[in-house]
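haha ok so turns out i had the wrong file open the whole time. this is the CORRECT one, sorry everyone. sequence first:
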Amino acid sequence: MPGVVVLPEGGWRRARAAITAWPGYAPTPLRALPEVAEALGLDCVWLKDEAERFGLGSFKALGGAYAVAGVLARVLARTGVANAASAADLESGRFATATAGITVTCATDGNHGRSVAWGARRFGARCVIFVHPGVTSNRRAAMEAFGAQVREVPGNYDDSVRAAEAAARDSGWHIVSDTSWPGYTEVPREVMQGYRLMAEEALDAIPAPPTHVLVQGGVGGVAAAVSVALRARRTGARLVVVEPERAACLLASAEAGAPTTVAGELDTIMAGLACGEPSLLAWQELERAAFAFMAIPDEACIAAMRHLAWRGEPVVAGESGAAGLAALALAGRDGTAREMLGLQKDSRVLVFSTEGSTDQDLYQALVSRVAVDRGGPSPLLVADPLHPVQERRPA
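then structure:
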């Protein structure tokens, strides 16, 4: 929406200062993919690799934990315990008695809940995470390892969001959601400010400004954060938002010209992107700034995972993490999509591998299903398009 400031610069500066001061902070790698650029007839392709972020395996570590600290600081101020408790204050245990009585909660497909659980343990709060039946046992165990209580509710991700909201309302808990809705925007805005650090790191490291940026959708939070970073630097890059074809709520919203819900099981291997309802804040940014939206099939994502795992310098990318590269490969081999996106021989493309192997058993099963000999050509780069590309410009 024109005039709406989704992520204020002051909030971004606070998030950057806080997160970069955390123990163990380091920018994640920006990796060149020259074989992809050559095969697709592009100048260069760069991949931001989030597999090792704070040891949590995804960019989500930047958002959920940062927002937990903000929630706890506000509760302590409201109750007269501390006026401006910093993350370092919380982590030191200085206010442990007070924070032990605070419960944070959220819904998750895995990665956001892991970040919230990590933040709750670091800062001394209780944590309850709501999941739907499709969240794997390994991802649940990762949250429980940080002390979170994991509760399963029927339905899909969006149903678990509603369950977390109801539980928080009934029990006096505090929601730390990465999606937003009318009346609930402060915490998701903090989450997105954390996500922006990933984009800023990539833009700091890339040798020349990108002409195209492909980023994962989901509820839209990370895509909106990347969009804000691109606009702040006036790069002029074309932002392409990528979703699973079975959970493409942002593409549906672009087609309708308004936030649109996709119902059903949202059955996709890209678990972190299996979201049927756009975030209000994210949509306010993406409806004006995204250049295009794409929906891709699961098979394309698996091919991208395998390519990254088999290349000379392997990159571990999970099912959601490989989506941007998968979309680029499909668009780069599809004449219509290539023309629509303006992909040319001088194009410089940035993609984000937003997660590593967050479920090791699933990851190994997928990358070990060898469709070609290990030393042969990559299925990502030589196969015919696996599915017609669904693509729309914003309405």
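The chain is about 45% helix and 15% strand.
again sry for the mixup
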